[in-house]
Amino acid sequence: MAKQTIIHHNIEPVHYVSDAFISWCFDARFSELLNKFIELRKFKNVDIVKMAGGGKVFATPEIETEEIHYLGQIAKSVKLHHTKSIILMAHANCGAYGKHFEDKAMEEAFYVNELRAAKETVASFLKKNEIKIPIETYYADFSGLHLIN
Q1: Fewest C-beta in 10 Å: which of 22, 55, 60, 126?
Q2: In whole numbers, what is the pLDDT of the chain averaged over residues?
């Protein structure tokens, strides 16, 4: 079998420590925001999982195995890269939810509640597996990224 090099790039073969496991929506409108967030936090290495709805999978998964799979990804990130924190994101106008809201306040309240449920699911999983790392939740809208407590 012949191979053709498309891009030549040397990659360090050593393992790294992950500054964060980030669950982000794959909606490209928010990709630049993710890059700015990583830069702002001065993260050197991150384990990013992009999926429809971001943290939705931990709050309202469409199928049970979906949640189990992504919790497993968190466990692998922690095991393989000694991950320091977990970041869950949800955003306004998310097609994965397929919801429409009467106003911006109702929409924001919905996603904040989803993020709180997602955080609870992940916290329960971490506790069960004796993993002690912080979980942060963020809501993105068309004006920026907002920390949810």
Answers
A1: 60
A2: 96
